[in-house]
Amino acid sequence: MTSTPQPLLSVQDLCKFFPIFSKGFFQRKAGVVKAVNEVSFDLFPGETLGLVGESGCGKTTTGRAILRAIDPTSGKVLFHDQGQTHELSGLPTPELKPLRTRMQMIFQDPFSSLNPRMTVGDIVGEPLKIHRLAKGTELRDRVAAMLERVGLRPEHAIRYPHAFSGGQRQRIGIARALVMNPALIVADEAVSALDVSVQAQVINLLEDLQEEFHLTYIFIAHDLSVVKHICDHIAVMYAGRIVELAPTDELFSAPKHPYTRALLSCVPHPDPDIKMNFDLHGEVADPANLPSGCSFHPRCSECIERCSQDVPDLTTRDERLLACHLIDPDQ
Ligand code: SF4
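# iron/sulfur cluster complex -> structure
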């Protein structure tokens, strides 16, 4: 009998709402920004899930809420690691602290995410010190080994971040995340600030490290050509919700959701003779004042009457999750 593989991460109906307060002395609650709204997915060990969408769609907030960098408003985040299941969203800080070594984040901007007053050795070794996992010679050896593994040299440990290029600084950020021996890494626009040639090197490095350390990635990006290369599955987000989640090849070869198709129409084609036909118009929905029904309906070229009234459920079709009335099985 074969057992069903267990996901490393199960995200269930995750929500993150930010209250808006009125100006003035009493500061009454005037509204709410629905940054992440009922997001659910499973992520299996060794896989990469891409979270994509336009700026403000909630992908970064989703990543931060999963890692408890911010507290979710509601929902569950189940982290199955080393034979135990942890419900991260409600875990008190003392119980969360040891789990932080197993979940790390790589940030977008390698220029501002590294402390300019610390040497590279101190930056990479700091998490080991904080969690009391190594000190003295062992700490220096682990830092040197990790620097080598990400393509830097051990002697770089005594230099400061300003002495490095953008790509090298991102390697320092990766070394800092990996030195803790994590299982899950959330890479938030990890290559967006880099030149294209350097992007390719860093992506290749992330893929090599994933294979070597059996890492699981959530790869947050707005650039669809980047996620196509590295992700096994892609979740497309709009106005805080997942609207389509599918295996990468299927999403690119046969996008089903009108928003996914519109996003793909905006990906530049390498052949300059092929005329682009942009299919994405209008402004992104304001998460503080969402349109009724399907949030995408004011921009959707396939909108039907029902779309402005009912929020479409996220339903399963074959290997795909979709939230659109045109694909709703009850339609
Ligand atoms: Fe377009 Fe309606 Fe589908 Fe929303 S539910 S994406 S408005 S067709």
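# post-check
The chain has one domain: 9-17+33-268+277-322.
The mean pLDDT is 90.
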